[in-house]
Amino acid sequence: MPQFALLLTTFVWGATFPATKAALEQISPLSFLFLRFLLGMTVVFAVLLFFRRPLIRDTSMMRASLIATAWLFIGYVLQTVGLRFTTASNSAFITVLYVVFVPLYLLRLGLHTWVSNGIALAGLWLLVRPTASANLGDLLTLGSAAAFAAHMVCLERYTRVADPVSLFAWQLVLMTVAMSGVMWWEQPTLAMFEPSRVLAVGLVVTGILATGAFAVQMWAQRLLPAQQVALLFAAEPAVAAWLAWYFLGEHLDAQGWFGSAMILGGVLLGSWVTGESSPAQQESVTARSEGG
């Protein structure tokens, strides 16, 4: 069930936020992103080599990979750099605004979409309580939300017409190449790359676990509409708060519990009550109409 698989990946995405925040105390954002995607690319290509899985390299595949990677690159750079200038709660809330951008991009404006999104966003506000004042980090994070939404829209399209494994692998390659070029803008020092527990944990969570979650997302987007994928990912901050409460003993008051319950309710409503058909269903309808 793709919805359940995506909900499981929110545990990984929820863990990447504190892992990245901690790693940025040692290393600059773009350098961290380079190491993250380098590790992810290395692991994925090792698996592909083990299973002798060839990659498609034709023009259409590379074009789709470039377009999707461009939005992914913009999203990660803006979000990670923005983390240095805003609070964790603001970043969590603003990033999840992709649940609004996706249906706007696709012009899928069904009533149930906005009701479920509204419930989830209201719950998110109660959970993270972002500050009212905006800063540079907030603006950068808003740009990342718009970019991540565009990436989800691209994946809905491209995973239906292209080999998803090749599309997945080439995005990792292109992200690694792009990060290797821009990281020098920050003038990184050797001290940033010194092995440490914080950096190692951050890279394992983001470079390995999150890469696996990304693979699950690409599989799921062959079956689910993009706006539903975005809404399912809105559960990420709630999951992060629950994990912090359970494992780290962080305080979660009644308002936080109520907000996280609202997020879960909005996600479940958007998952079970679907007014728009999935990409697969749309293709089936088109094929039947064309066949007479």
Assembly context of the chains: single chain
Number of helices: 13
Shape: globular
Radius of gyration: 19 Å
Helix content: over 70%
* Order of H and E elements: HHHHHHHHHHHHH
Strand residue content: under 5%
Determine the N-to-C terminus distance.
Answer: 32 Å
Describe the structure.
With 292 residues, the chain is mainly alpha-helical. Helices cover 77% and strands 0% of the residues. It is built from 13 helices and no strands. The chain has helices spanning 2-23, 29-50, 59-82, 88-95, 98-106, 111-128, 136-161, 164-182, 197-220, 226-233, 236-248, 254-272, 279-290.
Brief overview:
The protein contains 13 helices and no strands.
Keyphrases for this structure?
globular; about 290 residues
